[in-house]
Amino acid sequence: MDNRSQDDGSSADNASASPTEPLRFGPIFARSCRLRCPRCGEGKLFTGLVSMNDACERCRLNIARESGFYLGSIYFNYGLTSVIALAVFFTLFLGYGISPDAQLWPLAAFCVIFPLLFFRHARSLWLGMDVWLDKSQQ
Ligand SMILES: [Zn+2]
Question: How far is the CA of 122 from the centre of ligand 1 (A)?
């Protein structure tokens, strides 16, 4: 079943697969959110819960980058965790008057659990950003 054009919801996805036209941000972001290869949108990035493929099954994009490449994904993970925690804190504190003491443990639990759940997407987004910025990989 070929569902590539349906997955991103845009007709530009097929056009962006052309070797002469650089990939746009939207399709790459959508593919990264689906944990798929940012270049072709079909190959799976992960073989297990945390283990990644060495290369895309379809387009052979190098997924297993040099050592330390995916350390940058921590920026996405930490950044999103911080933004959500701060938004929730200030919304509950300023909007509903919930004290910081009452929010401490639930937000602390969130700050531990969310990065674990977002781990795969952070790596996928990091790889997608690299492909988007480095046109030679497209
Ligand atoms: Zn691919």
Answer: 18
